[in-house]
């Protein structure tokens, strides 16, 4: 966050200098061309050994720039001219080894082979999304002593590798917004752009907007712009500090779609500029009579639980309020059902419970404080239910998901006659990873988080006219995050996970798994067995001693006002 604020402050300072325009007129920016190394990139220090050449090549591969100029200076002349690295990056652990490979020696004293070994954390894909990956990393380099006596690489790899620290320093994470017609909300797609030069950040972000959703989110959201839309001129700041964006190819888009396009662009740029944004389409206002943009309506109001909904908890087979500890109305609160777990809809109006009955677990769904209808869905175990928004407005709480016997993802929908009926989910890609013990749908309905074999997994939800499928499941922090027992969505792009570990009981993870931050474990009595979170809410965990709340990562956990042992808390969603 500190680095984000610093970058933003520098960008705003540059954009606000009225007497020093960033560009005198719109011009096209040339793309990278191999072999073009700016003259101000110095040659490596004289006399460095082959191992140092390789280590510095990897360190400088993380510096974005024209034709990878900072890394290219470690190559011999022929490689400098011909090297064309593939798009994307491999991110490796900060600690990696470089050793001479004597088995591959040619016997020529002016040639050396160096092996690099480390641990791969993930890839930055060609669409600028981080994809977590747990595997060993190894790469072999051949070097040759040049006529001037300096060692240079003669066979640079097509795939660039950079350390995690250097990646974090040189790349800036941006949530690009895409629209979900199912929930009427904008969904963040975490992408990475070069952090410098700061003045070009808005243009690089706009490029990602135009590219559409990343591979992991395709099909789960709309691409409002499509392939036909581009920018007619470069994104630029004018003398008065306005950010100008001139689109072309919008064509006959409706007024509603133009407003959504405007919102998508403004939301995507809000992390890199505080300037007002001028949106044009073929030289005219994108939205008639609305040329300048800064404020937007809250498109995500329907997916955020109201502050009046304090949350609920299951205790000894009953559902109680987190607000005052009192039982909810109806059989779910008075003991009429033996409740194993439960979930409240985002709008607070409905309740889904898993009931223990006749040696099996059954799903019940209905209005809060009323009798809940029994659904023809049962098994030896059902995971805690979770709600998925399916429409804007009053119909938002129309679908419930659960996992039957750890291996079947099931959903029920509200039929026109008022009954809750089973519907299919193609979850093959997720169930193929192992036993599913927990499942949480994001409140915008585009993704789910699951606990699979004790690991944290995220997948996208792709819906067509006649099917629902889970796609692109990805394990987050696979190497370091184990023994996960519960998970919830703190925000649209961050998860809170609880583990049975005494050293790492509660963590916060971005939905792409690029990093992990541990909460303070003070006052907790491991093992933690439950967690719930929601936007603008305190994080709430359950351990052997009861319920505990904390708002920030470093904050000491405090007892919840109505804490009770053996409680499982949950916020709406």
TrEMBL record:
Residues 1-20 form the signal peptide. InterPro entries: GerMN (IPR019606), LpqB_C (IPR018910), LpqB_N (IPR059026), Quino_amine_DH_bsu (IPR011044). Keywords: Signal. It holds the Pfam family LpqB_N. The keyword Signal applies. Residues 202-290 form the GerMN domain. SMART domains: Germane. This is Uncharacterized protein YceK. It comes from Amycolatopsis umgeniensis.
